Amino acid sequence: MGLKIFNTLTGRKEDFVPLQEGKVGMYVCGVTVYDLSHIGHARCYVAFDVVYRYLRGSGRSVRYVRNFTDVDDKIINRAAQTGDAPVDLATRNIEAFHRDMDSLGCLHPDVEPRVTDHIPEIIALVERIIGNGHAYAAPDGSVYFSIDSFPQYGQLSKRNLDDMVAGASERVDEDPNKRNPLDFVLWKPAKPGEPWWESPWGRGRPGWHIECSAMSARHLGETFDIHGGGKDLVFPHHENEIAQSRAASGKEFVRYWLHNGFVNVDQEKMSKSLGNFFTIRDVLALYHPEAIRMFLLSTHYRSPINYSARNLDEATGRIEYMIETVGKVEAALADGGPEGGEAAADVARVRGAIGEAMDDDFNTAAALGHLFELCRAANDWVARKRKTPGRIETLSAIRKVLAEAAGIFGILERPPATVLSEIRDRDVARLGLDVVDIERVIAERWAARQAKDFARADALRTELSARNIDLMDSPQGSTWRVRRQAQE
Questions:
Q1: What is the C-alpha separation between 363 and 357, in angstroms, rounded?
Q2: Is the dihedral of CA 395, 396, 398, 402 positive or negative?
Q3: Which of helix, strand or coil describes residue 23?
Q4: pLDDT for the residue numbered 422
Q5: Considering only CA atoms, which of 7, 27, 35 is closest in space to residue 277?
Q6: CB neighbours of 126 closer than 8 A, spacing ≥ 6?
Q7: CB 463 within 8 A of CB 441
Q8: Could you give all domains of the chain from N- to C-terminal order, each with its CATH number?
Q9: Helices and strands (H and E) in the chain: how many
């Protein structure tokens, strides 16, 4: 049926038809680098990482642009608190952001523009908007976009302009330089001690909204295919982007608008004021990156997602099962067996179902459900006798589909034993356990079993169980794992 995308602008799913066949231009709003990035940022950038991966994996050539806002009130204020130069603070947080994204397995965009590298483009764009009668310069050196000049304002956010004007008019601190209380700033005059650039309106710096219009036009053209970001950006940021970009060019700005849902924490919206704010770095210290990706992708990107220890434990168990399955399939294939049969038809069916789910507005939740179905089938085939007709062919086909899925979802790409060890290390650290002590007790229990002191062995198993350690015995010895909350 082809790829369908839910377009925020029209409020419905639409067939995806790019401007140029086989090529896609995609812009995703990046972070304002005044601090470390949080789990809400992870939700956004993992979601669009999968969009990027899927579009590329479908044979399209994709140019992915994600910006950095590296000059802003928040950066200036934070730099004043820390004693840093704003540019140094921004650069340090960009480096931290890259480390976080690399840890989460996100591919690098093709271009990562910084606002401070695009001041000439921003100034030129503001001049065009003024020249077209959609903006005006104020006496203090500010430049404002005139909302009254753009009747389509509010189409993206589905807001009524008259209601917005009435609400804004009630503010007692309204800027006297504005002709309409909804007019938004394109250029700000410099304040003492702030970064500034020369412009036709005096020394100053860009407003927030204008930067994305300038950078997307520079790197993707005045009209491009996909613009993404969090739902919190629909208004006013993306609404303002549309107004200023169309006011400058007179052309359609973006064909498809995609917005991911919010992250809630224990059913409450994540915010610093509530004290439920988690940086990506904090979460990575507790949970494996592949578990975090599994957690984030197990809900459709447009829906809200609830961040909780239970949900992350559950996601860890799911990714662990999938990784173990990959290991078992690889071991079975290495062990070999008679060939000459045909792969089970269900493998092709599940592969098709994964593609259909992704073509339905990038429905990762449904696609991962089909992938789990494939893993269950894989374990069934691994357990069958080596001489079962079609066993090797089916496992080979399953391994190929798992590899394809790995490329789409950014999981299952590393050696299973390595990832399982890393998951266990985080489980241990999260519960404050001592690996050396656990291994000592396990060795003591094994010795008791060998000596047929089963009462002692059972007592040691009970001791470990009380510490959330589950044992798996085999003729070769005992292995162990941490029992998580979701498994209780």
A1: 5
A2: positive
A3: strand
A4: 94
A5: 35
A6: 135, 143, 186, 187, 199, 210
A7: yes
A8: 4-269 (3.40.50.620), 311-415 (1.20.120), 433-487 (no CATH)
A9: 16, 15
Residue 269 CA, distance from chain mean position: 17
CA angle 106, 111, 117 (to 5 degrees): 130
Copy the structure tokens of residue 221.
């053209």
Long-range contacts of 427-430 (CB under 8 A, 24+ apart): 427/316, 427/481, 427/482, 427/484, 428/482, 429/285, 429/286, 430/286, 430/287
As a whole number of angstroms, the distance between CA 459 and CA 481 comes to 18
Question: CA 453, 454, 458, 463: dihedral to nearest 10 degrees?
Answer: 10
Q: How far apart are CA 341 and CA 351, in angstroms?
A: 20
Closest CA to 405 of 376, 379, 369, 361: 369
For 67, the 3-state DSSP assignment is: coil
**Residue indicated by tokens 């993404």:** 228
Q: DSSP letter string over 365-405? A: HHHHHHHHHHHHHHHHHHHS-TTSTTHHHHHHHHHHHHHHH
Omega cis (within 30) before 236: yes
**Token output for 214:** 């300038």
Distances (CA, A) of 88 to 29, 67, 71, 83: 21, 17, 11, 10
Chain centre distance of CA 17? 24
477: Cα separation from own chain's centroid? 40
Following DSSP, what letter does each residue of 406-467 receive, concatenated?
HHHHT-S-S-HHHHHHHHHHHHHHHHT--HHHHHHHHHHHHHHHHTT-HHHHHHHHHHHHHT
Q: How far is residue 399 from each of residues 328, 396, 404, 406, measured CA to CA in Å? A: 10, 5, 9, 10
Residue identified by tokens 């089970």 is 344
CB atoms within 10 A of CB 444: 14
Coil vs helix vs strand at 65 = strand
**Rounded distance, CA 98 to CA 401, Å?**
30
What's the pTM?
Answer: 0.93
Please state, in angstroms and rounded to a whole number, the distance separating the CA atoms of residues 173 and 175.
6
Given a cut of 70, the residues of the chain with pLDDT beneath it are: 1, 165-174, 271-275, 485-488
- List, as one string, the DSSP characters of 209-227: HHHHHHHHHHHH-SSEEEE
Burial class of residue 366 (count of CB atoms within 10 Å of its CB; 0-12, 13-18, 19+): middle
Provide the pLDDT for residue 269. Answer: 72
With beta carbons less than 8 A apart as the criterion, state whether 221 and 18 touch.
no
